[in-house]
Amino acid sequence: MEPKHITVSSEAEEYLEAIYRLEKKTGSAKTMELARQLKVVPGSITNTIEGLERRGLVLHEPYKGVKLTEKGRKIALDVLRRHRLAERLLTDILHLDWSEAHDTACKLEHAITPNIIKPLEKTLGHPKTCPHGSPIPTACGGIIEEESVPLAKLSTEQSGIIVKIVEEKVEVLQHLAALGLAPGVHVEVEKKTFFDGPVSIRVGEVSHTLDYGVASIINVSRTDGKTRGQK
Fold first, then answer.
1. Which 8-state DSSP code applies to residue 225?
2. Pseudo-torsion of CA 52, 30, 131, 108, nearest 10°?
3. What DSSP assignment string belongs to 99-114?
4. Per-residue pLDDT tens over the stretch 189-199
């Protein structure tokens, strides 16, 4: 059964989704990080956060940041579900490049109403992940994350299958696509120089060198022991 839909403004949806993403990344949403993600000046978000807190959607502790309440988390997951289904619509049906899907889906997600979710999912073939590999929340707010680690954490000669790309900036996704790096692709670490230095990888028969920061946003499912030449 579809959960009862709680109506909030598009602006509030953007905030709740952004807070959820930052909570997943760092444990809480600090004001500066939230402003950066939403592309607004820090001073402009105070009133919105206070409004969300009055509605019982977030908890704000000075100097510690903002966290979602259970009620706020349910809305955030609903927005995230619509966002990732919108990304699938854009890439699978409208054939938009995966590097452009995120920004466009940020606008489209607010137009996807509860009555068209099921027809949309059916048309898309009930996808489990977005084009970048992140899981699509269920109608009941469940979200199943496949176990994965950042590619940067693998040691030399360890390998894995790309599960998801956790950074959705256009230029980053375009760079990864040019290198053939996408969910489902097998990669092997050929060489690591030092802790936060470049990571040399192999994709098929082609070698690439990735900046440590880029290697950190590529999450893989480890296939330890299955190095090049093994079945």
1. T
2. 30
3. HHHHHHHHHHGGG--H
4. 999 877 788 99
